[in-house]
Each structure stands twice: as C-alpha cells, then as structure tokens.
Amino acid sequence: MSRFGIENLPYGVFSQPNERRRLGVRLGSSVVDLSLLGGLLDHQTLNPLMAAGPAMWTESRERVVEHVAAGADRIPLSEVTLHLPFEVADYTDFYSSEQHALNVSAILRPDSPGLPEHWRHLPIGYHGRSSTVVVSGTPIRRPSGQLGPGVFGPSRRLDIEAEVGFVVGVGGRRIGTGDFAEHVFGVTLVNDWSARDIQAWEYRPLGPFLAKSFATSMSPWVVPLSALAGVDSPPQDPEPLDYLRPAGPAYDLRLSVEWNDTRVSSPPFRSMYWTAAQQLAHLTSNGASVRTGDLYASGTVSGDRRDEVGSFLELTRNGQEPVKLTDGSVRGFLEDGDKITISGTTIGAAGVEIGLGEVTGTILP
Ligand SMILES: O=C(O)/C=C/C(=O)CC(=O)CC(=O)O
Ligand SMILES: [Ca+2]
Ligand SMILES: [Mg+2]
Fold it and tell me: Are residues 159 and 283 in the same domain?
C-alpha cells in the first residue's frame, strides 16, 4: 500500500538530466510535474507558492489534486534528482521533547539531572545555520573540531537527532498560536547531525554552536499542513502564559530511525510537550520576524522507551551500551560509511495513513 496516494501529495523540487528544476508532487514512487499548471506552480522553488498564503495554498492544491486524479503523467523517482524544495531563510531548532531533555541531562549532567527550571515555562531553542541545511541523500562529511583542551580532530562521537521540521510560508512577527495555520505551509523531516564531543566541550554557557552547524539534513518532500490531522495537545503544567495559549494542534506522527539496514527506534512525535504553534508564537513573541522559507525544527523526538529515542546519545547511553545491528556489528556512535534513514507516517486529514517521505545521509570520513 502506498503512503503517497492522492490524500498526501507532498511537494518537492526535481530535475531530469539537462533540464531546469521543476515543482512536483510525489505519487507512489513517482513524481508528477506541476510546471504544466503554470502560475505559482511553475517555479524552481516552492518559495513563491509558500509566500502566497493559505487561500492560494488551497486553490493550488485543488488544481494539483484534479490534475493527478485526471491521470497526470508520472516520472519514476529513479529518473529524477530531488533538490532542496525551498530556499531556507533562517533555521531554528527547539528542544521540546521532555523525555529527550531528561535523558540528555541525566547523561551529560549527572550532577544536575532533571529539567532546567525554565523548561516548562517556555519552548527553549537556539538559532542554527541555514546555509548548511542540505537535502536528503547529501553525504555528510565527519566534522572536525575542538574535542577538549589542546585537542583538534575529527569528531569521535558523531550522532543524529530525529526531528520534525515546520516550514514558514507567510512571514510575520508576534504570531499568535491561533494564527499558526495562516503562516505555516507544511511539515518535513529533519536530521540535526550533532557531534557530541564538540558539543560537550563548547556548549556552556551559550548552547550549541559548531557541534551542530556543519550539516542539517531535510527530506525533499514538504507535506502540506492541510494533509495532516491535528490531535489534542498534551496537558501542560504550569499553565503557559497567555501568548502561548491556546496550545494549538499536536500531530500524531510516528517516526522511524534506521541505522544501515536496522530499525533502531520509533520516536513518537505526539509526545512532544510544546506544540509547533507555541514554538512559532514564542519565536516571534519579542517582535522578531520570520519570513518565507524559515525552517524550525521541533527538537529531538524521544518517547519513554529506549526504542523510542531520537538520538544515539540516548540509544547507547553515550556509547556505553552499544547496539547490535542486523549484520552483527555493534555501534556506539556513527562510523564512516554508516547510512541513516529517518521516515515517518501518520493518519492524515482524509483518514488514511500517509508518509512523510524520508531523510537519509551517509557519513564520509
Ligand atoms: O541538553 C543539552 O545539553 C543538549 C541538547 C541537544 O543537543 C538537543 C538539541 O539540539 C535540541 C533538540 O534537538 O532537542
Ligand atoms: Ca536538535
Ligand atoms: Mg545539525
């Protein structure tokens, strides 16, 4: 059964040899060319469509569905190159999984485990580096950096973070949680590659810097928000301040992390404490603006169980409890040549299961 039927139709940008980039939607294991539909659908990135706002998103989607339903030509995915679907403006990364925050504190800060005091009062985040957001399939060169006093070299504790990315279509500032769907165009999958040794040495007191800025991978497919079904958001205690209310929808996405050919984890996005609407409200609450193409990631998605965590730091307890892959090899952190694939599914707005596409990357020495 295809999770990429007519109820899904995520947007992407593709090209064929010696031809310009075109917008497309994924249908099964093929892509449907949208350039024939003209207007906002005949561009080399999604940015013009994203900037046009919800009324045009709905209208364009109706035309796309009609085109596909009428039996549009399909080009096999094996015959196209997929590109970054939009020009990434700014990139922000949150820290909104309570279980992830607890796990990381216990592993990295055993002297002060537990959530930071402010964690339940605001969605913690940091501003990342948009120029190193790369499309799925781009090889990831192992970063080098300071690993401790007097030591510079290749990271030995290279890790992943399985996250959900939200793509801003219409910019703005002081965006209330109730206006989320007026601004956010869609959802994608993100892998926030992280060098834990560089991070542990550099991060106090300003947070992640070179440990994460070398590469962030995203899926080539953006699932329009309207294809997703919102569900009730989790209870929050203490009650958030007014600008973070109402919380807005949660999304019941189930992620999957494969290390080479072994599925090692299934992170549950529904368990996130802060919603995407609250993250956007917080990000713009001081008067800062977001613009078309801004990407913000949810933070690492980790559930309660060991087979639900979104990072290998958690999965292998900082490398102390290695996992065995199906080929018999064992892993603490990423080795050269390892390939990571993050995928996701959910029951969409039409009541059928839809896929989020996937984000892959292979480690180069
Ligand atoms: O707790 C820490 O010191 C560090 C946490 C992270 O590295 C996670 C980060 O990038 C935010 C997230 O993905 O949740
Ligand atoms: Ca992250
Ligand atoms: Mg990163």
Answer: yes
The residue range of the domain holding 126 is: 91-364
38: Cβ contacts below 8 Å, ≥ 6 apart = none
The pTM score is: 0.98
Cα of 1 from ligand 2 centre, angstroms: 32
CA 192 to ligand 2 centroid distance, Å: 5
- CA 202/CA 206 separation, integer angstroms: 9
* 251 and 114 belong to one structural domain: yes
Domains held by the chain: number = 2
pLDDT classification of 1: cutoffs 50, 70, 90: low
Nearest CA residue ID for atom 1, ligand 1: 104
- Whether 37 and 98 share a structural domain: no
C-alpha–C-alpha distance, residues 120 and 117, integer Å = 7
Q: Is the ipTM of this complex over 0.90?
A: yes
> Which residues neighbour ligand 3 (ion) by CB within 5 Å?
192-193, 212, 216
